[in-house]
User: Fold these one by one.
Assistant:
Number 1:
Amino acid sequence: MRILAVLASIGVAGCTLPGSSSTSPPASPPDVPRVWASLGGDAVPEQPVEVLDTVDVTGVVVADATWIDETFDRGDREPPRVLTIDGDDGSRWLLGYGWSEDPTADPPAVDLAPGDAVSLRYRSLQSFGSAYGFVIRDGDGALVGATEVGSWGDGLEPDDLPEVAVEDGDEIAREPTDCGTLVHRSLVFTGDTTTTLAPLETGTVTVSSVDLTAYSLAFFDLEDACPDAAGLREWAIFR
């Protein structure tokens, strides 16, 4: 499915960690999947920004499908899924999302149909590393999906997702590397209900009487780290 002949994009997020493999997980510490939160389209700047950049889009859904023959200009791999939105101002936007190497589930399709009203908030932070995040809402403002990929900072701000708090949980495992110790932790998702998930676990969190699926994809801190190393926090929520 060819949507645009030429795309400019900001941000394709992924990570391969010292001492961890995306194809053969270590015996005790959890594996770390590659997670995407990327944006392309005819209104996206050709060069990524070096500070926090926020994009707000309102429009209608065109399609949500696996990626076939287009690539985002930045990043070495194609996102597993792409949500296409036609903005109210006539622009076209492409949101690449999903994850790989996750044995718990394939990336879900967004719970919206072509022609449905949609709003998107997308954030990117480019510094020593990168952080990305997005929140998708339907025409009534209800939460449809969100993803955060945070390294050297958080991909989302607290006001982006006021109905769900995602907080640090307990230590799960430790993994020594040449650049410090990876301390893997659980994540705590709190809406109307609370669920605590270890890395690569899924669970249910209720928001405004609607059950959503929460995905704890990766979360670790680094102790005694090298100067250019940082922790990572990756999660997703989908209706």
Number 2:
Amino acid sequence: MESVCVPFSNWPCTSIEGWVAIGTIALAAVTALLWWSTSRLVRETKLNGERQLRAWVGMSALSRSGFGRGDTVKFVAELQNFGQTPASKVEVDYGIALSGTPDDDVVVIALNVVVPPINPGEHVSVVLSDLYKVTLEDIPNLDAGLTHTLLAGTVKYRDIFGRRRATNFRAFATGRAQTTGIKWLREGNDQR
């Protein structure tokens, strides 16, 4: 008489049906593990492709024009798309301040400049100026290097994947003569 094996009821089963049931369960577990790892690999590959192909907008150069009493402080930022696809809806939110230390916080919500789309490798110059006019009292401290001109802000843009991206910048200059040796601050800065 042939014995009927019901898996897990009279273990160990010696009939073929029991081993087929165990093999089916093991195959289902391996298939689920393979599906999970493959879907994870597909997700990571897609993100890596986005990272490599997306727009990367930042500053390739920054200078400041000289100024005197009654003038506004002006920086000229050269934005560049370092990525491989165009950047659209480009905006620069920024703030400029005169301060005794380069580490002071600068409010970056005050001013905004809208920039046309930037193609890969393309440079766009943007004038960032403040509404504040330099006073007679500011000039001696600027000339002596006791007061710094701070610039901080964010370049915001949309890449071809429809994602909103941002690059933060924070720099300072000493004195009031035209300066090309702008120093980038370490904290709060993606421009390093």
Number 3:
Amino acid sequence: MNQPIIWRGIILIILVVFGVIAGVLAYKNKGKKRGLDYYNFFIMGAIWLPFGILMKFIEGSESIGNIFFILGLIYFVIGLSNKDKWEKNKMPPLIKNKWVRGIIIGLLTLFLFLGIIYTYMYR
């Protein structure tokens, strides 16, 4: 069987599952008003800012790198300028456990290194 067709099918199934989950969550929280969470703007900016720099220099795609860098910088500044509006106790209960947090950080680091190795091997 042709591998690209298999991968497209897997990606389609994953997108459908995420769509169903998003639909259920949207239906469940229907009618509840929530304000802006500036802490999440800060976190997105802190992630997208270095990602934009990496994309710019490692991948060589300046346009994508610039987009992530600029958006990350904007989110970072918005979140940091509204620091007084951050809600208390932002960490989810699952991540308060040190073992779970260590496993998550370890897996993310492993995926990062595997992505870098893959990029250099198949460039």
Number 4:
Amino acid sequence: MKTKAMLFCMFIIFILISGCGKSEPKEYVSKEGGYKFTGPAGWHLDDEGDNTLVIKRGNNKLIETLSMQLEDSPEQLGSLSEEELFEKIKSHTIDIADAYCSDAGIENKSVNSAYKTQLSGLPAYRIQAEGYANGLGATAVVDIIVGYDISKANVYLFASQIEKSEYADVMTDLDAVISSYQVIQ
């Protein structure tokens, strides 16, 4: 009897040590938006719209993604030089960052970095800023990436808002989400 009890206890300990119940990364898909990405373990879908997905972990970590049609046609975008295209993306990203921070109640925004990048292989621009977030009651880091799909005249947006004191701990998760982001048909 003691042997069975001992084996049972060892089995339970093995299950606990092996991570039973641990959450795994999850793929999120916006068919209407035409994109997908893998969210980090422990994050969950908070909101979903036609072209929008919002995932969250706790109250202070938020990732929003969306896609939308541009006013420009694929021909208009295709006729731009690479420099003109990046200036257009940069200007659009700055406008989106300003609107995002305003909508999120982020005051005294200051830009930490802004640079050319890619999102799912598309030309993109990234802005990282911080400011006081009224909703969090703390300073937040805002990270926005806007990618242009010239062939579809579509824009893809990645935005995160994370309390500054937690940003360094979440940076690996954000980079993984950005790296996994894919435009789909």
